[in-house]
């Protein structure tokens, strides 16, 4: 097992879902663009860091959140040390205060039992996987394909968090609740909301798939 530290901070000022990119930009500007864990751009090359975002931006019950993993937690002092927390959301000035703060530690790895989760607006299909998915006729075949994609993403998540599981990751989709077209980076893509079980203990609000740093693919545990 590998230890995962997670800090979630929810602020008190409501925002709309489409304001998440502005929220991210405002927090990154306040913390300083030289601190690239806040925005995941490579300051040297001008491109992107292809890594798990260690500071993720979410919205829950209308309020914005920061979800920070491992060294992303230490980076938060760049934001919290600022004397003024007023955020510029594309022209709207939004003073924010902490509504709720939670710190947890998780044992990452595979278990001899399964855990049940809800996954909201998961953009899991990249170009090749989307082509395979659309060519499948039956519901069972499509769900099986989604399971394989999700299993690979959980494998990658553990790997990026420096966890080598003792047993293979197992995933079973219990129910696909919604499949809809959404706009992601000005391109129409499929997003799925579903329930699944896995033999991996995942923290609430961690993101999977494309856009996981920006409120897509949010995981929540189910009892």
Overall residue-averaged pLDDT value: 91
Total domains: 2
Given the structure, what is the number of helices? 5
What is the terminal separation in angstroms? 23 Å
Question: Summarize this, please?
Answer:
The chain has two domains: 105 residues, no CATH class; 113 residues, Alpha-Beta Plaits.
Description:
The protein is α+β, with helices and mostly antiparallel strands. It has 5 helices and 10 strands; from the N terminus they run E-H-E-E-H-H-E-E-E-E-H-H-E-E-E. The chain folds into 2 domains: 2-106, no CATH class; 110-222, Alpha-Beta Plaits (2-Layer Sandwich), CATH 3.30.70. A hairpin with a 2-residue loop joins strand 4 and strand 5 (92-95). It starts with a strand and ends with a strand. The longest helix has 22 residues, at 139-160. Helices cover 23% and strands 39% of the residues. The chain has helices spanning 20-31, 71-75, 77-80, 127-135, 139-160; strands at 2-11, 55-60, 63-69, 86-89, 92-95, 98-108, 110-122, 171-184, 187-200, 218-222.
List keywords for this structure.
223 residues; alpha+beta; Alpha-Beta Plaits; 2 domains; 4-stranded antiparallel beta sheet
Topology, please?
Layout: E1 2-11, H1 20-31, E2 55-60, E3 63-69, H2 71-75, H3 77-80, E4 86-89, E5 92-95, E6 98-108, E7 110-122, H4 127-135, H5 139-160, E8 171-184, E9 187-200, E10 218-222
Antiparallel strand pairs: 1-3, 1-6, 2-3, 4-5, 7-9, 7-10, 8-9
